[in-house]
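Sharing a chain and its predicted structure for anyone who wants a worked example. Both blocks are below, sequence first, tokens second.
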Amino acid sequence: MLDDGRSKKLSARFYRRNNKGEEMTERELLLSLKAARELKDKYEALLKAAKEDYDAAEQAIIEHLEGIGADSTASFDGIGYASLAKPRVFASCLKENEDALKEWLKEKKREDLIKEQVHAGSLSAFVAELIESGHKIPDFVNYYLKTKVTLH
């Protein structure tokens, strides 16, 4: 957790008291809310930038390993190594193809995936199973593979 210099646990109860332990005024409550929002926005921006940096570094490792035809890096003292994990499948279906998708799932005896809507995570897992077993995926089901790196 990021440390902004405060050691007290931030809770609703904490925010109702000022530095003297007295009940906060409406003005103090508003100032406290604004300060908390600014801090939250700052951390969200930092997290967004960190995620972008991580994604770029991960993509660079993937491109490097694919470029040299390897599935893992060398192991380095104090760092470890990275390896390419099995690509994760992300499947979806356009709204206009939903009826065809439901029929196809029924044909494949996977009615359990059909709810009011077909859940994307469940569909992705099912499509991954089919890909692994060499079955054809219908044109109305969209999917892509995303390679991730595992750090060891």
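Comments welcome. Helices lie at 26-68, 98-107, 120-132.
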